Structure formats: C-alpha cells, structure tokens
C-alpha cells in the first residue's frame, strides 16, 4: 500500500499531535539535514539573506520539505558552487499524521469494522506552518542573489499552497540591519560568533574588556 497523497493532510484540522510516550511507533521523518552548504562560513562572508515564506496556514509533510531542500541545494551547487551559500531549513516536522488502514483483499468486509474505532495508526510526519512563517533561509554573497531567488522559486513547486520569496534587510542570519551591522562592526562593538555576532558588554573587569576589544579588532 503506497503513501496517501499530501492533499489528505494539507490543512490544520486538529490539535498538534507530537511523538510522545503515548504516541509510539512513529516513522522517522524523511528530512534529516537542516543545515547545508558552507555552514562554517563566517558572519562577514555572507551578507545577503533570502527567505522562503509560507503564505497559508497549512501542514507541509517531511517528504515535501526534503524534496524542496534537495531541489534548492542542487540548483545553487550546480550554478554557483557548493561553497557559495549556507542554507537552513526553518521548519521541523513534529506533527504526527495518522491513517486508518483498510483491507482491500477478498472477504475484507467480514473482517473490517468500517468507522468503528477509526482512530488511525501513525504513518508519517508534517510541519504545521502559519502565514508568514519562514520555510527556508539562505545566506550568500550579494553576487549570488539571482541564483538563490531562482533556487527558492524552484523549491516552491514542491509545496502546496502559496509561498513568497523575501529578501531580508538583515545582515546574513543576524538580527542586525545591514547599516547597523557595518557601523557597529567598524566601532568594534561586535564579535563574530559562527553565523551570528555577539555584542561586547561594556561592563565588567577592565582586563576582560581590553581582551575582548583586542580580539574583536583582530
């Protein structure tokens, strides 16, 4: 028996139903990788950030998320190289989908109970998405803007409903706008911390302050 079409599970009808000690035997989600590309790239290397936003309140299956991830990754890797971006999947499929399996063999009508006890068994997972929630985020160089937008446009075909591609005003994955980032970084008030930045605190021992400032300026 194959998978049910995703249209059966597209809408958020019921409450969230996560995996727990009461809800056992849940199959593993198809999506396993949530960060891809050049993850170790410093915060200064990739200033541009582009988001794929969901424009509907719906559910997106783990299979669809995996298909969209592969689609975007393949296009960017082929066009501008596998080290030219850092992509992050922002949804996690925690909601468990159920199925009330029916027999379809001969004599099944004697064994089946129809709608009696119709509470189904777990058969997959999906992410519950709100309007305006981010599905994928990609940070890259300004020169790759067109490539990333095209990759996200292709990934949109893997999802039901409507999505929007938004170019962020922030610097990469940080919370700072591009103008603020440049001024704060030049003033030495920020310290790179992987994909993000730390604010250097003005308070504390003088020795610690000088050490932090020297490290930030290095």
Q: Helical percent range?
A: 25-40%
Give the CA-based shape. elongated
Sequence stretches where pLDDT stays below 50 over 5 or more residues: none
The helix count comes to: 5
Number of strands: 10
- Give Rg in angstroms: 23 Å
Fraction of residues in β-strands = 15-25%
Structural class: alpha+beta
Main beta-sheet annotation = 5 strands, antiparallel
Intertermini distance? 61 Å
Mean of residue pLDDT?
92
Please trace the helix and strand order, writing H or E for each element: EEEHEEHEEHEHEEH
Write out the strand line-up for the largest beta sheet, numbering strands in chain order.
1-4-7-2-8
What's the quick description here?
The protein has 218 residues and is α+β, with helices and mostly antiparallel strands. 26% of the residues lie in helices and 24% in strands.
In words, what does this structure look like?
The chain is an alpha+beta fold and 218 residues long. Helix content is 26%, strand content 24%. The protein has 5 helices and 10 strands, in the order E-E-E-H-E-E-H-E-E-H-E-H-E-E-H. It has helices spanning 62-80, 108-111, 145-156, 178-186, 206-217; strands spanning 35-37, 48-54, 58-61, 85-89, 95-99, 121-129, 134-140, 163-167, 190-193, 196-199. The strands form 3 sheets. The chain has a 5-stranded antiparallel sheet with strand order 1-4-7-2-8, with helices on one face. Helix 1 (62-80) runs antiparallel to helix 3 (145-156). The N and C termini lie far apart (61 Å).
């Amino acid at each position: 028996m194959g998978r049910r079409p995703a249209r059966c599970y597209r809408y958020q009808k019921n409450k969230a139903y996560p995996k727990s000690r009461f809800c056992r035997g849940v199959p593993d989600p198809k999506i396993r990788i949530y960060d891809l590309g050049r993850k170790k790239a410093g915060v200064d290397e990739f200033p541009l950030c582009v988001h794929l936003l969901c424009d509907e309140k719906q559910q997106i299956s783990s299979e669809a998320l995996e298909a969209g991830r592969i689609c975007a990754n393949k296009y960017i890797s082929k066009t501008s190289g596998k080290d030219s971006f850092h992509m992050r999947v922002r949804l996690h499929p925690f909601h468990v989908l159920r199925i009330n399996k029916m027999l379809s063999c001969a004599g099944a009508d004697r064994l089946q109970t129809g709608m009696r006890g119709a509470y189904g068994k777990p058969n997959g997972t999906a992410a519950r998405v709100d309007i305006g929630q981010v599905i994928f985020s990609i940070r890259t160089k300004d020169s790759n803007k067109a490539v990333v937008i095209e990759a996200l446009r292709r990934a949109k075909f893997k999802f039901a409903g409507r999505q929007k591609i938004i170019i962020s005003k922030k610097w990469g994955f940080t919370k700072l706008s591009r103008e603020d980032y440049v001024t704060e970084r030049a003033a030495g008030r920020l310290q790179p911390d992987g994909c993000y930045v730390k604010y250097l605190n003005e308070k504390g021992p003088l020795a610690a302050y000088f050490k932090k400032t020297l490290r930030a300026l290095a």
